[in-house]
Protein 1
Amino acid sequence: MREVVSGLWQIPLAPREAVNAYLLGDVLVDAGTPGMGKKLPDRLAGRPVAVHAITHAHGDHVGGSKAVCDALGTELWAPPATPTTSRAGTRPSPRARGRLRCCGAPRAGRRIRSPAGSSRGTRSAASR
């Protein structure tokens, strides 16, 4: 882990930082592929994680989410159009994209600006 700025830690999950997760305060952002997600809880070096969030539903961002949520007992926050299959750590079906809400979260939630690199026009939602 490397502290990028105060309170933001980069966690490289692949050689040459090809895939990364980030810890922002107590929020873990992204989880890599399924194999990476299994190793990620150990790489957090005992830091507390209250929530796991994904930036978008590509396999190298959400693939390890189920392993992370199961190991840490956290809920998953995702953009509203993210299919529930992402919670299972699988690549979402193109047919389901845009029709399902994420991970059992209610339809209404606090909208937050999506991270840079997200698809144009994407909005994210946070729900507690």
Note: The mean pLDDT is 74.
Protein 2
Amino acid sequence: MSLFDTNLLTLARQLVPVELQTPVLAAWITAIGDELEALRAAFLQRRAADEVELQMTGQVCKLKALLNDTFDPIQRRIYIEDDNPAEPLWIRRRAEAQPVFIYTRAEAGRRQNMGRCSPSLCPPL
């Protein structure tokens, strides 16, 4: 549940004291509540767009602009997404049904130091 997941119309009706609740006031609150809901929807749309924009660094923005200027200057459809670096790359040997993990240089150094990685599978440092 987010801070912005509130029903403003229901909240406004509940905040009116019982003595002041009349049909005219309820209609007035509904009219104002509809406008507030429209503003809230526009705010949430803008907030989602801003969150995406804040995740980009200056390097990503410049690279995206450079690629769009070079390869798609009119429609500017090139965008950059983050890859999921947590997923390892697995390959399988044909002779064996067991997977072989491809290590990065940093991981290979740690594996060789721990004695768990054979030199044939780990790249040289």
Note: Confidence is low (pLDDT under 50) at residues 111-115.
Protein 3
Amino acid sequence: MLFLRFESEACILAEKKATMTAKEAAKILYMTGDFSQKQIAETFDVSEATMSSWVKKLGWEDERMQKLSTEREIERRAKKAINYTLQCVETEIDNNISEGKFKPIDSKTIDSLSKILKAVKPAEVKLVQVIDLCSELVTYIQQNDLELAKQLLSKIDGFINYKRVKLQSNTL
């Protein structure tokens, strides 16, 4: 499943950037953190040694670590892990049903999903509440002073971003 997605992303990347060199395209895939050096090397028909050399000599590893350590990237990867796990569970359920088997999901999978959802859901719920409250405030102010509401929008956007970062740092 990961391999098919990898091939698909590599094809899309190649179509979008027809003039891009293999090195540039390899860097983009490497920066996602989703693919091994070997997979990328095979896709762009370069040796693993060449790929490794690019990573080391051009500082891709440090750059990727900085990118992957940001809060937004952590959130993206957590959601991606949840989606992948749910897709696997759904596929297993669909396969069991099509084969006429009705067996329960194993306890390890249920436990993993439960832990992931406990970590992510509270932050999302709190953020939704903040956004709803801010939307109500802007709507209320618009009724009385449209110019003030326009001025507040950028401040409210900044506040929501601040709240998102704060909530993520408390839960992840």
Note: Confidence is low (pLDDT under 50) at residues 1-6.
Protein 4
Amino acid sequence: MWGIDTMDGLMTEELPNFDLSGRTALVTGAARGLGRAAALALAAAGANIVLGVRDQGSASDLADEIRTTGRDVAVATMDVTDLDQSLAAIDQALEEMTTIDILVNNAGGSIPGKAIDANPQDFDEIIGWNVKSSFFISQHIARHMISTGRGGNIINVSSQAALVALPGRTGLLSGESRREPLDPLSCRRMGPSRNSRQCRLPDIHRDPGH
């Protein structure tokens, strides 16, 4: 994803030329880093944005910035480890925005440490944070997309830790990497539709606030 943090910075980057006018995108983990960049890029392409964040106050500046472009913005306060709360927040955003055509599953992360030191609680936490949340949020959005007849796009942000070993972070505990196998499987198993799913594996980057 582009190394940008503001709309002004975005406009200096060379972006893909596509038009998302009339579409609405939900980006989880949108407050900073890759999620913030994705929200800005989608807004620049014309999409209305639902910002999925744990703390509503963390998205206020970003929401105001996107609104200056004329896009509609909703903030969905959601902790992806709490599925009931997250799905309720998505439903509330749907009431406000009417539809969601694009989902970017970006929220997630890893636990530093070695696999030899991991315990069952670590495992459950990282799988719930990354894999379980991504699957069931995707399922919820896919059902909406199918019901509208418009189809849509679901994008999972994974990690190159899916392919390489990183010092201090094992493949097991780099939980975002577990999203990679979900895409071909869930595309087939969620049934025929106009939906598409894809997985993106960004390189290591410095995320403000970490």
Note: The domain at 21-200 is CATH 3.40.50.720 (Rossmann fold).
